[in-house]
Amino acid sequence: MFPSKQKSIESLFSTENMKKVGKASSKFFLFNAIPFNIVDSGPYYQSMIDTIAEAGLGIKGPIGYQIGNTYLEEKVQDLEVYTTTLKAKWPIYGCAIMCDGCSSRTRKPIINFMIYCDRSMIYHSLVDTTNIPKTTNYIFSLMDKVVEEVGEENVVQVVTDNEASLKVVGMLLMEKRKHFFWSPFATHYIDLMLEDIGSMKQIKETLDQAKMIIGFIYNSLKVVNLMKVFTKDRDLLRPGITRFATEFISLESLIRYEADLKRMCTTNEWCEFNKDRSRKNVRDKCRPSILSS
């Protein structure tokens, strides 16, 4: 009996301590408007908590200057050591140069270059292509320069988008360096496969229904909030890497929360929030689709 009592007391103290840590952490996040999902996606949150716990009571956190200078410089040095270690593997295993075009937060068109080797990837460089025609010769010159910087003898593969111009660039690189081979990102082929699957009559009808339901829900803040009551604050919309992946991921979300959405459709709030003529017509189309799924 005594050991079990001891265990229950320890469990009680552990629960109380977790609540204290939760309240203190939440206060810091809320007061400084830090996004909550950093806790779930950031790799260093739990290690920070563990280190503070090991240091014990009374430990003082670093001031802003220390974070922005002392510890930032140390982290830069750590990353330099890390990249040097990876670069040492290039002659041993060979590496792949990955080229990806995208837009910056300020809508500037940029091309990123990454180096992949031995299951690790590091950033190499980016090029701002604002007002520059993205001709085959221009992109080839950029990639050729990266190859020279990495070392021709270390590169075995070049991976790019599946665009026609980049295919030509890949061919030119393989022509110039016979030991190279070019391949497109697998995500582009998967996206093309999903596009073909999504164009099949029965599947297209299902996807169209899913888009109608999700669009109808997210066009009203009241309905979104009602939905989250039943899905325990979880969203149906989860953006994927590509357009067609997003459609299938959204469909998967509808299936996952099927029972929750059915319960939502039978509430008085569902009817009340969608009683306007403009929404009632679509509501009457969505409700049977949800309940019959």
Q: Could you characterize what this model shows?
A:
By secondary structure, the chain is α/β, with parallel strands linked by helices. It folds into three domains: 2-61; 89-184, Nucleotidyltransferase, domain 5, CATH 3.30.420.60; 194-292, no CATH class. The protein is 63% helix and 13% strand. It has helices at residues 2-31, 38-41, 45-55, 64-87, 90-93, 136-150, 164-176, 186-198, 201-218, 221-230, 243-256, 258-265, 268-273, 277-292; strands at residues 95-103, 109-117, 120-128, 155-160, 181-184. The chain has a five-stranded mixed sheet. α6 (136-150) crosses α7 (164-176) and α9 packs across α11. 11% of the residues are buried. The mean pLDDT is 86.
Blueprint of the fold:
Blueprint lengths: L1 H30 L6 H4 L3 H11 L8 H24 L2 H4 L1 E9 L5 E9 L2 E9 L7 H15 L4 E6 L3 H13 L4 E4 L1 H13 L2 H18 L2 H10 L12 H14 L1 H8 L2 H6 L3 H16 L1
Parallel strand pairs: 1-4, 4-5
Antiparallel strand pairs: 1-2, 2-3
Summarize the structure.
InterPro entries: DUF659, RNaseH-like_sf. This protein is of the alpha/beta class and about 290 residues long.
- Please indicate the percent range of residues in DSSP E strands (runs of 2 or more): 5-15%
Shape: flat
Order of strands, widest sheet: 3-2-1-4-5
Low-confidence stretches: none
User: Between the first and last Cα atoms, what is the distance in angstroms?
Assistant: 52 Å
- Average pLDDT score: 86
Q: Order of helices and strands, N to C?
A: HHHHHEEEHEHEHHHHHHH
What is the makeup of the main sheet?
A: 5 strands, mixed
| Class based on secondary structure composition and strand pairing | alpha/beta
* Total of helices: 14
